[in-house]
Amino acid sequence: xxxxxxxxxxxxxxxxxxxxxxxxxxxxxxxxxxxxxxxxxxxxxxxxxxxxxxxxxxxxxxxxxxxxxxxxxxxxxxxxxxxxxxxxxxxxxxxxxxxxxxxxxxxxxxxxxxxxxxxxxxxxxxxxxxxxxxxxxxxxxxxxxxxxxxxxxxxxxxxxxxxxxxxxxxxxxxxxxxxxxxxxxxxxxxxxxxxxxxxxxxxxxxxxxxxxxxxxxxxxxxxxxxx
Length: 227
Description:
single chain; alpha+beta; Aspartate Aminotransferase, domain 1; 2 domains; 6-stranded antiparallel β-sheet
């Protein structure tokens, strides 16, 4: 049995029942025959919403695993892989909703900049679908960037990833703001003018929104004097 990572997807259990899953003790199971009924694919969704897939040879009631070996080639094993991929893709389309971000505080930031400044987040990079910016409407300058980054990039000894927001601050205030616990030197930006906040709730929304307000003001830049 193999776990399939559902990136940017959230499972909808109501849709799963319509799809044909059967629920038993909090676990959802779906089976379908493939290859003229010689095998069946079993999808299992655990109570913590992880997707597991296995292929079973019906005649011997044994799990078939050759398709999981990258080096295995041939028309038959290729056909099995193809059937598994098609079913998983169908599951994602019919049983899941797109969910780029997972942290509640990330959505609090998105809601705040929309309601306060009329800013919609913009996904600018096809190769970085979990990165987005929000900018001022008057001069189009960024005042925040939401990203998903490895904690290690922030200097934290962890294999986990973090949802973060980069915000502007005046150079004289950067050192005072950074605590290397929830607020870090800017990732992927000029560290003299930007800093990074981890959006895991370790900093209050009140303080976070105050930082956003300051970032919005600083993104305006200096007004040019008229002669």
